[in-house]
């Protein structure tokens, strides 16, 4: 037991008092001895003694009354009562009044005292840890409430910032490739995010990410994802050469997967990331848990692109595949977050069939597709809705 702790021993019997004092002294206690209940009560003060040991049979007043007054003055101070075999009923009453333990007299084995004190010390330690945990939890809850209030006050600024991070729509690149999107959050901020850009004069890279959940926490993760990708772009050139396109796509997925796992935010994400090689008319892409799959619209109609891969933030390895699709002179690419499926009826297969039909009938045109799905006119969206389109010809 670290340090010297003070203990109040209230016991009239000299032999018992000497034996208990010796055992407690060996345990590291500084023992103050008194022989009567009144003297014990007058000596006791909250915080002065870390433990009280009192006999139930005292010359001037009952030990139960001593116990009651001590617990009234300091409910957290542990009290051990000394009792004879004939005072078992009093022991039961003492425990009901808050006694931490009891010792039956005559006490002839110091280990009995050792065990009782160890039980109390362990219980005190656990209680202190629980108090500290509750205090820390309350402190963090206060901080969290403060943060939430700040976020609530700054929702408008947050939405403007997220919109500022998004690219311009529509945007037309050299070579006639046009990118456009519609992003509508279910709450003030979105867990969906998209971005696209031209690399060199040949490659147009893009992605759509859908973070689990929606609102502030998911929106913050989208900012983390954009920051991570931009940091990777500063470290080394991406999408600069044809022979590194596939590895660049996998590096992006691996980076975001590692970021989500390391932050321990209990967030995962689906992602569609791709690169269009304009001169070669090829689409290189990879999917990570994407539902629904992207659709390619050509003169032959709309078809889901093949591919598979695990979501980001759940597994160390995602088994992602880089796929390549040949593009005709005129094409449309449509990819949606899973919130779009919430606008349709039926099971998953039925919803996907309805969505593919709507994409086909709209010929991949963003405005026409949004009108067909009632994206802009739905009163309450159960999830963030994002549609990203790319087109040429």
Automatic annotation (TrEMBL):
Family matches, as SUPFAM superfamilies: CheY-like, PP2C-like
Entry keyword Phosphoprotein: yes
GO MF annotations in UniProt: phosphatase activity
InterPro entries, A to Z: Bact_Sigma-Reg, CheY-like_superfamily, PPM-type-like_dom_sf, PPM-type_phosphatase-like_dom, Sig_transdc_resp-reg_receiver
Keywords: Coiled coil, Hydrolase, Phosphoprotein
Domain of life: Bacteria
Coiled-coil residue spans: 120-154
Membrane-crossing segments per the record: none
Domain Response regulatory: 6-120
Any one Gene Ontology BP term: phosphorelay signal transduction system
Residues carrying 4-aspartylphosphate: 55
Alphabetical list of PROSITE patterns matching this protein: RESPONSE_REGULATORY (PS50110)
This protein's record includes keyword Phosphoprotein: yes
Protein name per Swiss-Prot or TrEMBL: Serine phosphatase RsbU, regulator of sigma subunit
Origin species: Microbulbifer marinus
């Amino acid at each position: 037991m670290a340090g010297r702790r003070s203990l109040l021993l209230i016991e009239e019997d000299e032999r018992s008092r000497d034996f208990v004092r010796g055992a407690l002294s060996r345990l590291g206690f500084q023992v103050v001895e008194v022989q009567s209940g009144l003297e014990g009560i007058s000596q006791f003060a909250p915080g002065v003694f870390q433990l009280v040991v009192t006999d139930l049979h005292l010359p001037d007043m009952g030990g139960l009354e001593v116990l009651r007054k001590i617990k009234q003055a300091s409910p957290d101070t542990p009290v051990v009562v000394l009792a004879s075999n004939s005072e078992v009923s009093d022991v039961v009453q003492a425990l009901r009044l808050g006694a931490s333990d009891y010792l039956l007299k005559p006490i002839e084995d110091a280990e009995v005292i050792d065990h009782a004190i160890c039980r109390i010390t362990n219980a005190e330690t656990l209680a202190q840890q629980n108090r500290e945990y509750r205090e820390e939890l309350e402190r963090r809850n206060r901080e969290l409430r403060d943060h939430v209030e700040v976020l609530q006050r700054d929702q408008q600024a947050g939405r403007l910032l997220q919109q500022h991070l998004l690219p311009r729509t529509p945007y037309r690149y050299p070579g006639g490739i046009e990118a456009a999107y519609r992003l509508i959050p279910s709450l003030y901020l979105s867990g969906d995010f998209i971005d696209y850009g031209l690399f060199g004069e040949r490659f147009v890279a893009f992605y759509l990410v859908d973070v689990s959940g929606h609102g502030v926490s998911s929106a913050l993760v989208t900012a983390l994802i954009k920051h991570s990708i931009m940091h990777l772009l500063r470290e080394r050139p991406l999408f600069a050469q044809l022979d590194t396109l596939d590895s660049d796509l996998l590096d992006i997925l691996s980076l975001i997967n590692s970021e989500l796992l390391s932050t321990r935010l209990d967030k995962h994400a689906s992602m569609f990331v791709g690169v269009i090689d304009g001169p070669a008319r090829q689409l290189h892409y990879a999917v990570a848990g994407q539902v629904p799959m992207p659709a390619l619209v050509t003169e032959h109609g709309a078809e889901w692109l093949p591919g598979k891969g695990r979501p980001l933030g759940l597994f160390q390895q995602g088994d992602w595949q880089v796929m390549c699709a040949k593009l005709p002179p005129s094409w449309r690419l449509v990819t949606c977050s899973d919130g779009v499926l919430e606008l349709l009826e039926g099971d998953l297969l039925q919803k996907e069939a309805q969505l593919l039909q709507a994409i086909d009938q709209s010929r991949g045109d963003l405005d026409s597709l949004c009108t067909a799905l009632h994206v802009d006119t739905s009163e309450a969206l159960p999830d963030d809705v994002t549609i990203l389109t790319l087109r040429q010809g």
